[in-house]
Amino acid sequence: MLLRCPACEATHPHDPMLYACPRCGAPLEVGYSEEEMRRATAFEGRGVWRYRPLLPVDRAVTLGEGDTGLHVCERLGRELGIPRLYVKNEGENPTGSFKDRGMTVGIALAAAVGARAVACASTGNTSASMSAYAARAGLKALVLVPADKVAAGKLSQALVHGAVIAEIEGSFDDAMRLVTELAVCERSVYLLNSLNPYRLEGQKTLAFELCETLGEPPEAVVLPVGNAGNISALWKGFREFHSLGRIGRLPRMIGVQAEGAAPIVRALRGHGDLEPVPRPETVATAIRIGAPVNWRKAIAAIRDSEGEAGTVTDREILDAQTLLARLEGLFVEPASAAPIAYLRRRRLEVPGPVVCVATGNGLKDPDAVLGVPVLRERIHPDLAAVRRLIGS
Ligand code: F0G
Question: What does the pLDDT look like over 57-72, one tens digit per residue?
C-alpha cells in the first residue's frame, strides 16, 4: 500500500497521518501494488467489510454499515424519462448517511495509529457519523461546524454521542481551514475529513456494491457534490473493479451542485481551476461549500468518465424531495434530492441503469419540509370535523 498524488504524480509510503502531498500540497489517494490487487479476489460477508482485501486496515470498528437498499424506481423513472432508474438509499446506514462507510474505516485507522482524539469540520453528517464511531471506539471527538447552519437532526447526533462541538462564526470552508491547521500542529488529533484518503477507501465500497447488486456497472451515477470526496471515492471504486476485470466498462459520473454553491460546475465551465465561492448559500446545507478540498479529483472523475456537472435551484431541490417521497416512499434530505432535480431539469437519454445516490436520510432535516403543502388543519376531536376535512 502507498500514497499517490493525483496532481503531481509523486508517490509516498503508506502513512495514515499524511493528509496532503509533501511535494505539491494536493490531497492524496491510496494506491495498492499489483500484488495486493492480484490477491483481492475473494469478497466475503456483507457491507463495507465484505471488501476488506481492498481496504487499508484489517480491524473494523463497525456499526453494520453498507449494504443499503438499491431501489428500482419505475414511477419516478417514467416521470423523468429514465427507463432504468435506481435510488441507492444511503440514509439506511447506521447514522443515516453515506459517511458511515468512510468512518468505519477512518476510525479503525485512528485507533490503529493510537490517536487520542478525532476531529472534523462538517456541514452535519460527517460530524454525526464521526461522533458515533468515535464513541464506539472509545475516542474523543471534536467537531467544527458553521454556527446556525447545521440541520437539527445532525447536530443532535453529535450532541448525544458526546462530541465537543465548536460552532464557528463563519462558513464550512472556515471550519475546514481551521481543523486542517489543528491537525498539522496537534499530532495526537486524527483528521477525519475527506481530505483523509484512507476514509475515502471506505466510501468507494458504494461503487462495488452497485456493480455487484446490478450484476453490471451503472451507465450513469448521479450524486450531490459538496467537498467532493464522495464522487472521487466512487470513481476510484469503479476504476478498481474495472482493473480487476470485474466490470467491462465504466459509468459516467454526474455531479450536481446547488446554484448558490457550485464551484466545481464553474471550474468545469471555465479553465478547470477552482475559484472558490466566498459566500455559498443553499437550502441543502449539507453541500453548502464554496472551496471543496477534493475539487481536482472530482474534476478528473467527471472528465475521465465523460460525465458532466450541473446546478439546480433550491426550489427544484425541494420539489424533487417531495416527488421522490410521494412517488417512491423514500424520504431523503434536500442535498440528496439534488440528483433527482437535475434529471428532471436535464432530461437525459440513458437506456442503461442510472443510479441516483441518496446520500442522507430525510429525518436529519425535518425543518426543510415543514412548508410542503398538504391537507392539514387543526380540528375539534369529533367525527363531523374529520369528515369535513376529508370531504374538502
Ligand atoms: N450529501 C450529503 C447528505 C452530505 O452530507 C454531503 C457532504 C454530500 C452530499 C456531499 O459529499 O462532500 O463528499 O462531496 N457532507 C459533508 C459533511 C461535507 O460535513 O457532512 P462530498
Answer: 999 999 999 999 999 9
Q: Which mutation among 88, 150, 227 tests ligand 1's pocket best, with the greatest number of atoms within 8 A of CB?
A: 227
Q: Give, rounded to a whole angstrom, the gap between the first and last alpha carbons of the chain.
A: 66
Same domain, 105 and 161: yes
pLDDT in tens, 240-273: 999 999 999 999 999 999 999 999 999 999 988 9
Nearest to residue 221, comparing CAs of 320, 329, 302? Answer: 302
Domain boundary among 162, 196, 230: 196
Atom 12 of ligand 1, residue of closest alpha carbon: 227
* Cα 35 to averaged position of ligand 1 atoms, centre (Å): 33
Cell of 4: 499517490
Low-confidence ranges of the chain (pLDDT < 50): none
Q: Report yes or no on 53 lying in a domain.
A: no
CATH code of the domain covering residue 222: 3.40.50.1100
- Residue 142 sits in the same domain as residue 167: yes
Which residue has cell 471534536? 142
Distance 284 CA to ligand 1 centre (A): 10
State phi, psi for 12 to the nearest 5 degrees.
Answer: -135, 150
Domain extent, residue 141, equals 98-196
Using a 6 Å cutoff on CB, does residue 230 contact ligand 1?
Answer: yes
